[in-house]
TrEMBL record, chains A, B:
Listed name of the protein: Glutathione S-transferase
Domain of life: Bacteria
Pfam families documented for this protein: GST_C (PF00043), GST_N_2 (PF13409)
Domain GST C-terminal: 87-203
InterPro entries hit by this protein: Glutathione-S-Trfase_C-like (IPR010987), Glutathione-S-Trfase_C_sf (IPR036282), Glutathione_S-Trfase (IPR040079), Glutathione_S-Trfase_N (IPR004045), GST_C (IPR004046), Gtt2-like_C (IPR034346), Gtt2-like_N (IPR034345), Thioredoxin-like_sf (IPR036249)
Gene Ontology terms for molecular function: transferase activity
Limits of the GST N-terminal domain: 1-81
Keyword entries, A-Z: Transferase
Length: 203, 203
């Protein structure tokens, strides 16, 4: 079993934090994204979306998409406490927040960053105006997280979940967009300081 | 228990097909999206993303995001066969395909449609150039589905899953973008004709 990744990339870090929370160690192989190693036919045969991370099982089966990789480990290595939720309502609430943070947060932040910076303009059309619009929508979304954290200790409720991992990744990533978790977001700020102390996130 | 929805909207239809597959009937309440009923404070208090569908439980707890609603029913009303997969690998493969079809298909199609048509320009900035770019990326993604369906009977493998439901919704929605599942996509075409015969999808 092996994970192909670029360690500091947001989606690779999501898997790393998830595995650290579960105490699972997996062999890693570095892929040079900026150099275009993920554009090779060999890599594309492993990764349906052409992206890292990719989990390769011992029989050669490959799984891409970071959340799908996390779900594999959650199911194949069950522990008493699941980061995807532990009853029907909790699982639905984790899924809801996971999607909210991803679809209105992380993906929007990625579109903002890629379209404003043009970091991958050698391989995609960048439309700066959409980047700026995305950055604005992201700024409008972030207070939703602060409001939630005023009433619950973690993003999806009373327990730390994969939605918290996605939110940590978001909070770190938005620094690339010159957006800060400042004093106008006291609950998000407090939560961020608190979860940053977890060994999985410190690592 | 009640679902707030606009029946023909893609995300409401996903939940309807899912419930029909599971044989669950739930009370529905129509929400007038074009008229802006979802913009009211009353609705926003129920729906964190301001969108339909929203599931309201008998104790007043609400869940938005269509996949989260499906997951609630999958967990709260378990059947022998889950549309989210039935072992660790299958669950990971369903999650992977569900995400691929959603993140590279349905969401891209929505961004294309909203930005090209300007249907919600009374409530969002539309950037036609991003709409056209999204439409092009969607056209480049669709053959991935055809290629998969050349080797597996359903999107995520041997069994019908929520990833097939999302793909049906995508195939129907792209007609708004004048994209057809034509003879250049024989496997996707065959799969579409086959799954369209399911009572849940015919309804």
């Amino acid at each position: 079993m092996k994970i192909y990744e670029l360690g500091p990339a947001p989606s690779a870090r999501r898997v790393s934090i998830f595995l650290a929370e579960k105490g699972i160690e997996v062999e890693r192989q570095h892929i040079d994204i900026r150099g275009g190693e993920n554009l090779s036919e060999d890599f594309k045969a492993k990764s349906l979306n052409g992206q890292i991370p990719v989990l390769e099982l011992d029989d050669g089966t490959t799984i891409c998409e970071s959340v799908a990789i996390c779900r594999y480990f959650d199911e194949a290595y069950p522990t008493e406490y699941s980061l995807f939720g532990n009853n029907a309502l909790e699982k639905a609430q984790v899924e809801m927040w996971q999607r909210l943070v991803e679809l209105r947060g992380l993906l929007v932040a990625m579109q903002a960053f890629r379209n404003i910076s043009g970091i991958y303009q050698d391989r995609e059309n960048c439309i700066a105006e959409w980047g700026e619009e995305s950055r604005q929508r992201l700024i409008e979304f972030i207070p939703t997280l602060d409001k939630q954290l005023a009433v619950t200790p973690y993003i999806a409720g009373n327990n730390f979940s994969i939605a918290d991992i996605t939110t940590v990744i978001l909070c770190d990533f938005i620094q690339n967009l010159e957006i800060q978790i400042d004093d106008s977001l006291p609950n998000l700020q407090r939560w961020y300081q608190h979860v940053s102390e977890r060994p999985s996130i410190k690592a």
